[in-house]
């Protein structure tokens, strides 16, 4: 296997002190509230509290003044809902900063042994590559192909591929009795070699069964949150 694997790009992380976090939270709350429904005095108070800069002399109070009861009640309003939204936004931004490599979302059809070797050797060293070796007419191969299509959308950072046993150039190594086969690679290293993989499933199996099997061996990354994650979490809480 080639040693020329692309190095992981450094991740830029912003470090913020406690005061910065508080100011960011207040600013987020100000921006997320319906400004038209707030009385002018409350709108101005929240605006002042969201500013990280020192107030001018013309502003009410000094930099070291205590928070008034009115201000306390203001920031207390809808805090639970706003804080939940703020936390989700921060997690999403952090995930975007830490995410790496391309998104695949489809199953790639490989047509030769050279293409098979290339996808193993040249993919990003942190990308998991799952290859299904199949043969038309062999029981379980067609269903497993459909499962791969589903998993490719569920795990867009994983590169799912399929190749017929004959196209590998080593068909003698993959007779019908060892198909369908699943091979899992990362950084050019073989992590999983599952021959006749359907023997681990019931006669009727689904994408969730294949997913659970791969997760049992720790071969899939954590599943990414979908668009409805915010609403689901809100329902739970």
TrEMBL record:
In Swiss-Prot or TrEMBL terms, this protein is called: Phosducin-like
Q: So which residues are the signal peptide here?
A: none
Q: Family per UniProt?
A: Belongs to the phosducin family.
Q: Could you tell me which PANTHER family the record lists for this protein?
A: PHOSDUCIN 2, PHOSDUCIN-LIKE PROTEIN
Q: Which UniProt keywords apply?
A: Phosphoprotein, Sensory transduction, Vision
Single GO cellular component annotation?
Answer: photoreceptor outer segment
- Which GO terms fall under biological process for this protein? regulation of G protein-coupled receptor signaling pathway; visual perception
Work out whether the entry's keyword set contains Lipid biosynthesis: no
Q: Which residues form the Phosducin domain?
A: 13-224
Q: Which Pfam families match?
A: Phosducin
Top-level lineage group: Eukaryota
| Matches recorded under InterPro entries | Phosducin (IPR001200), Phosducin-like_reg (IPR051499), Phosducin_N_dom_sf (IPR023196), Phosducin_thioredoxin-like_dom (IPR024253), Thioredoxin-like_sf (IPR036249)
CDD domains (alphabetical) = Phd_like_Phd
